[in-house]
Design goal:
The protein has about 190 residues and is α/β, with parallel strands linked by helices. The chain is built from five helices and ten strands, in the order βαβαβββαβαβαβββ. It has helices at about 15-20, 30-35, 90-95, 115-125, 140-150; strands at about 1-5, 25-30, 45-50, 65, 80-85, 105-110, 130-135, 155-160, 170-175, 185-190.
């Protein structure tokens, strides 16, 4: 099975990913991933929306499995015999903010224990790294900001919503006054003040 990253939003597919989609006979993906890839999927291709992620290991060998963003950034890449990268939300975020990826560290808080994620973020800030936080629905930004402020980490907190989409939004705040979040599709960048 080939896992193809469709990027974090429309227009974020690579040429290699588009070529793989055009040659596909069976495509599987979330509703959002299919919507991003749809312009490049042939009309004769069988398109299947995934509703049960526990059965992904049972997909046929000739399947193309779509993964939003880059499959190796908290994605489905571990399932494929071959992986075609997409443009990740992290790449997009750091490009928009003009930040060096060499200082970045990924903190995956999507579906994880937020208390553990808060400690990991604080530790990385203390090391001088720039945490890129993958959040999930219901992520408590105020709890994170309060925790960081209590650690006396003065930092800029950046909320990146709907990256790659027409309604993309980037908001800036601090640990003491975090920006607000208006969507379910957001990530965070935290930069410690010198």
């Amino acid at each position: 099975m080939i896992v193809v990253g469709v990027g974090c939003g429309p227009g974020m597919l690579t040429v290699d990913a588009i070529d793989r989609l055009r040659a596909a006979t069976k495509v599987f993906g979330s509703e959002r991933a299919i919507a991003i890839a749809r312009p490049f999927i042939p009309a004769s291709c069988q398109v299947n929306r995934i509703t049960n992620y526990s059965t992904l290991g049972d997909l046929p060998d000739d399947a193309v499995l779509l993964s939003t963003g880059d499959p190796m950034l908290a994605g489905l890449g571990h399932l494929g015999t071959e992986v075609v990268p997409g443009i990740s939300s992290m790449q997009c975020a750091f490009s928009r903010l003009r930040l060096p990826l060499a200082k970045a560290v990924v903190v995956d808080a999507h579906g994880k224990d937020e208390k553990t994620a808060r400690h990991e973020i604080a530790d990385e800030l203390a090391r001088g790294r720039i945490p890129y936080v993958l959040t999930g629905p219901g992520f408590d930004l105020d709890a994170l900001a309060s925790f960081i402020a209590d650690k006396d980490h003065e930092c800029t907190v950046i909320v990146l919503e709907n990256l790659g989409y027409p309604n993309e939004s980037i908001s800036f705040g601090t640990a003491r006054r975090p920006p607000s979040v208006s969507s379910r599709l957001f990530s965070l960048v935290l930069i410690r003040e010198p």
